[in-house]
Amino acid sequence: MSVDLVPAVAYPARPTLPSGQAPAGRRHIYLVFTHTGTRFSKVLKMVTRGEYTHVSIAMDASLDRLYSFGRNSIKERPWEAGFVCEQKDGGVYRELPGTRCIVYQLEVSEEQYRRAQGIIDLFLRHQSVFKYNYPGLFFMSIGWAKQCKRRFVCSQFVAYVLENSGTMRFHKDFSLMRPTDLKGLLYAPVYTGMLRSYSAAHAL
């Protein structure tokens, strides 16, 4: 499935400065695509039709905090899934150390960064009211754009943040965005490999 996307700002995904620092007034956010290999992730793979079945957004290169929708632990029951603040060395990823990932770095303006952080902060303040969008998986599979109140899957949430922060504008509803759709619009990843082996130095 192709996606027609118009970037709000035509900057490369990876900075060109030797120091790895953004130009004055520029910031970076990070998209992290993963596949854990759990039974549920294999079901998602059939729906999303991509190698990576999960996507998170991080606001700094350390990836110490990854924001998404899913479970905090594989021991949690599926209906307990919701908005989560993941850690690359904790929670699900500590339980599944073989998780592979691919990381992209997006250059954004200070205003876009501030807006994205503000949206994430809103989700954090009301974390308990947000649930995983299981009905949305069905609607996504049949191509029906339907926004379910206070419910998201991981890629819907990331697309929502990107669109509402002004970082990207999509020509299809964010409720139809899959991890493979987002990944297909990016280039030049800063890291590919085991999530546990990632360090901020890869983003420089």
UniProtKB/TrEMBL annotation:
Gene3D superfamilies xrefs: endopeptidase domain like (from Nostoc punctiforme)
Tell me the protein's name: Uncharacterized protein
InterPro entries according to UniProt: Papain-like_cys_pep_sf (IPR038765)
Q: Which organism is it from?
A: Bittarella massiliensis (ex Durand et al. 2017)
